[in-house]
Amino acid sequence: MASMNRIENKNGKVVYRIVISLGYDKQGKKQKKTITYNVNQSATKKQQENEALKYALEIEEKIKNGHDYEADKMTFEDYAHKWLEDTKDRVEYSTYESYKQLIEDNMIPYFKGYKLTNIKIPSIEKFYKTLAKKYSMSSLNKHKSILSSMFNTAIRWNMTEFNPVQNARLTNKDEESKLKYFTPQQSLTFIKSLDISYGFKVDSFTKTDSAGNKYIVNEQVKHFEVPLQLKVFYTLALFCGFRKGETLALKWSDIDFEKQEISITKSASRNESGKFIKKPKTKTSIRIVPFPKQIVPLLKQHRQEYSEYKLKLGSYWKGDDNVFYSLDGSLPGLNNSYKYFQAHLKKYNNWYREHEQEAKENGLEELPIITLHGLRHSCATLLNYLDVNIIDISKYLGHANSSTTMNIYAHSFKEQQREATNKLEDYLTKVQAI
Known about the structure:
Elements: E1 3-8, E2 14-24, E3 30-38, H1 45-64, H2 76-87, H3 93-111, H4 121-132, H5 137-156, H6 184-193, E4 198-202, E5 205-208, E6 214-217, E7 220-224, H7 228-240, H8 244-248, E8 255-256, E9 261-264, E10 267-271, E11 274-278, E12 287-290, H9 296-313, H10 336-354, H11 356-361, H12 374-385, H13 390-397, H14 402-414, H15 417-433
Antiparallel strand pairs: 1-2, 2-3, 4-7, 5-6, 8-9, 9-12, 10-11
Helix pairs in contact: 2-3, 7-9, 7-12, 13-14
């Protein structure tokens, strides 16, 4: 049983020094933990003793059941860093970085000073309200998921007994949380947009020649075109449904031009040391995906450009048969394709607004701003539109089972039910005409 010693300081403040036995270590040395407990100073001596005894018994019981009593003193900030360190080796490095950013930018500033065990449901709900002012519903859900995971870990580590996130109500932004993707028609527009040359104005500026003489370069219009390898990247993402890491990890040996198939056996990722190649997300992610013959010329054109560039660099080439490459031939940055994709959509929409009549005559339309992963969603939507059954779509995307595919794309598939109804109406009209 815990022992207690009443101590009255010179300033008159009363505390109890509690000593809890932790048994013996491997060398037979007795282990103990000493805690100083501040009692209610206005209470009677007997009340103070009972208060301290109750606390001592609670702590002793928690330690007996494996609870880390230090959690009672641990701040949310300290625990957050502890949790991040533990999580770092269990998730993708990019995922870890996104967790770290949200925790350090939003959670730690809000819960700074809170003891981990003092965070209750009302505190969580107030936190959600502050986020709702500047974040989308999907971002709110991401914060909720991280917080819930943090408290679940705290429970597993016997640092707290419940997860306040579980029953906390998420602020309703009256916005439907759904996937962002291109419709089949928009997918065609996007592919066409990759071949458009965008003109943009460059203001006049002053330049100095090798002799130190200054001269003015007049205002001019420069033209911007999507690099060939990015055309290939986005085309494969849209028509084959590859994840970003799967696309970046492709080698030329993975592409069978005769059978028109691409083998997905690896994925590009990164950690603190840099980029590396790893196994795909799941076992079912390892798959062979057929590709349309219409994109064969594009792939061959890219392979020709790749070979010429590799020959030009000679000994400076640092690539390894990788389909996509940076200036020195090595694997490109994992975020480059995403940033370029977003910039391209904005450039295209600007061009569309300036040439709306011409664009409409060519069957083009303004495009929604979606994420790069939205091209994979667009692929699933397109396959469903083309009446490919759900099992084949699931295999195409590398999902573990078709229920996963349905859970993800139920909303977008539902939006295409009108097309199915139109086909049924056409069929019944033909039947009635017989």
